[in-house]
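User: Predict the structure for this protein chain, please.
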Amino acid sequence: MSALRKFLLLILTLGLLPVCLIAAEPDTEGASDAAVYERQIQLIGRQTALAHRLVRSMCFVQAGIDVPRNRTLVSDTRREVAAAFVALKEGDPARGIAPITNGNILTQLGSAEMVWNGLDKKAASFLSEGMQNEEVLKLTFKSQSLEKLWRNVAQSLELKTSVELSPDHLMRSRLIATAGDQSRLLQQAGKDACLIYLDQGADTNVARREDLSADLSTFNQNIFNLTFTRPAQSDQPDTPSLEQAAFSTWQTWVGLEPLFYALISQSNQAELPALLPELSFSIEYMDLQLVETLEIFMAL
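Assistant: Here is the predicted structure, written as structure tokens:
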């Protein structure tokens, strides 16, 4: 059994993978069915993270934290999401992404695009005119709605295409979906952390702290198991590049995790202005590591 297959089997055994499986219409010229599926999975999974990254970056700007970098992230996220909608509707052969042609799924994609357009207009207004704190706080509901709509698209694609994949490709697809969800958890945690700071003393922060704690717990369990749990026996060596990338990402998390937990404790509120700039930078650095680690895996 290959090291890659055993790695996939391990992940499935650990129960770390979501039920959701995303796939695409397998008609992109020059790409195999499996490769098209995987790129579609990656693209849609990325959108759940970007929904929260947009609001997170806006919140950090509003809080006066790492403003130039986060304003740039707002603009970059808007462009990235707009390009994703084009790729899903029209295809992107250069990236191995086929267009969606199923009417029901296109309708669901249209619903996601409508919510995104509303959020995008808010972001454009924010960059040009600014907002009040209350307006920024309300944007979290739009990011949550957008995430749910992307999950609807994913579920419909799963029902349509899961029978077309071999067991090995199903395992790969589910791992790719999990990696995307790790990015989503990270960006959502960063968003909630900033909202806690921006809305200090509000009753809603009790629920935000509970949500943040739950997301951190899930993320922490996943990254530990993905990094350190290995098959009991191996007849082939593991992939050094994947191991190193996963370990480097875990090391970043070791430094980032205490910053998040400091935000959960109300006793640390006075220290937040000093903690948030490092949190802002570290979230994006780690998100990039997650994306790069997934690319290494997909190249195997």
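Confidence is low (pLDDT under 50) at residues 1-31, 230-236.
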